[in-house]
């Protein structure tokens, strides 16, 4: 088969479409013939040499894919050759085939084609596990999403609105904020021109955000804490703004607030399977009913993954950039 390899870390040009050995479905796994994958920030870090795959997983980038089951390994039930699926991966999505633990499979939702489904697994599992399973966003509460126009952001807006929450977003352009508003965002904040702490306080009568989904890390740590409501929950899922910041514990204590920080890729298969099962139970009906949809910016041939990485690094996109198998 063909896959995107990274002979040496570097820029987008480090991504090479090359012939590699076919994977084999082991015990508890299925082999998926990939139709499409999607680009995530973690893939860029891996390409740069900063985010190695977990031990035992595929060396190729790609944390989600969609396709058809080509083989079923021993001990797998409930899935059959030919089933159309999408999958959460620890790696290997930038390839024509990938072996996937059966617990990380999801069926193709109603109303979507296979390519669109590739935009779902990573973002839906990230948002549901952090915003709902850990931070426990409730109806009537306010969620602040940093990077509202990203794949994670566009999904967080939709899911939060679906459960009856109010949504604030940050983005860097008016056009991106307009796209967020079209998805249901209530409070639109241009982080280049406005202070999100002040804007969130103003929009909530001084209360602040009950839950914050943050992809920036250190750069926003202090301001996120100031923007939190009493009993607020900060969920950190990225480090685009650095890895070390100063935390005012007095503010944290006075607000009776909580901070969680998670990554999805390195979790054990059992934990991933539990998240996927929760997504299938709670989110898939929303997608089947047309209430939630993946937002796809564009499709690029997988063999030209370098072009897709350039698009994501330039941050001009809204939603997900897909890689389609030629």
Features:
326 residues; 11 helices; six-stranded parallel sheet; single chain; 15 strands; globular; alpha/beta
What does this protein structure show overall?
With 326 residues, this protein is of the alpha/beta class. It has eleven helices and 15 strands. The strands form three sheets. Strands 3, 4, 5, 6, 7, 14 and 15 form a seven-stranded mixed beta sheet that branches. A six-stranded parallel beta sheet has the order 10-9-8-11-12-13, sandwiched between helices. Helix 3 crosses helix 9 and helix 6 runs parallel beside helix 7. The protein is globular and about 55 Å long. The termini are close together.
Following the backbone from N to C, one meets helices and strands in this order, namely EEEHEEEEHHEHEHEHEHEHEHHEHE
User: What about the largest sheet?
Assistant: 7 strands, mixed
Instruction: Bin the strand percentage.
Output: 25-35%
Please report the number of helical segments.
11
> What is the percent of helical residues?
25-40%
Q: N- to C-terminal separation?
A: 12 Å
Round the Cα radius of gyration to an integer and report it: 19 Å
How is this structure best summarized?
The protein has helices spanning about 40-45, 115, 120-135, 150-160, 175-185, 195-205, 220-225, 250-255, 270-280, 285-290, 305-315; strands at about 1-5, 15-20, 30-40, 65-70, 85-90, 95-100, 105, 140-145, 165-170, 185-190, 210-215, 230-235, 260, 295-300, 320-325. By secondary structure, it is an alpha/beta fold.
């Amino acid at each position: 088969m063909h896959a995107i390899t990274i002979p040496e870390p570097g820029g987008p040009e480090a991504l090479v479409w090359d012939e590699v050995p076919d994977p084999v479905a082991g015990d508890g796994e299925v082999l998926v013939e990939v139709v499409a994958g999607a680009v995530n920030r973690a893939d860029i870090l891996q390409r740069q040499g900063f985010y190695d795959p977990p031990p035992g997983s595929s060396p190729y980038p790609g944390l989600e894919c969609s396709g058809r089951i080509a083989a079923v390994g021993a001990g797998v039930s409930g899935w059959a050759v030919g089933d159309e699926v999408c999958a959460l991966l620890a790696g290997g999505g930038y390839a024509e085939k990938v072996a996937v633990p059966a617990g990380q499979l999801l069926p193709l939702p109603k109303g979507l084609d296979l390519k669109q489904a590739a935009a779902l697994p990573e973002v839906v599992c990230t948002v549901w596990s952090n915003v709902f399973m850990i931070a426990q966003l409730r109806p009537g509460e306010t969620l602040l999403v940093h990077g509202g126009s990203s794949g994670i952001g566009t999904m967080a807006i939709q899911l939060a609105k679906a459960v009856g929450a109010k949504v604030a977003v940050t983005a860097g352009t008016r056009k991106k904020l307009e796209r967020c508003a079209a998805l249901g965002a209530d409070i639109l904040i241009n982080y280049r021109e406005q202070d999100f702490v002040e804007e969130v306080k103003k929009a909530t009568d001084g209360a602040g955000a009950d839950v914050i989904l943050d992809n920036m890390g250190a750069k926003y740590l202090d301001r996120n804490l100031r923007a939190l409501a009493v009993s607020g929950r900060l969920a950190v899922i990225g480090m685009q703004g650095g890895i070390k910041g100063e935390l005012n514990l007095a503010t944290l204590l006075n607000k009776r607030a909580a901070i969680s920080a998670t990554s999805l890729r390195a979790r054990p298969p059992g934990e991933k399977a539990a998240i996927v099962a929760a997504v299938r139970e709670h989110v898939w009906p929303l997608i089947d009913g047309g209430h939630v949809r993946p937002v796809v910016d564009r499709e690029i041939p997988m063999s030209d993954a370098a072009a897709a990485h350039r698009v994501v690094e330039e941050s001009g996109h809204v939603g997900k950039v897909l890689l389609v198998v030629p």
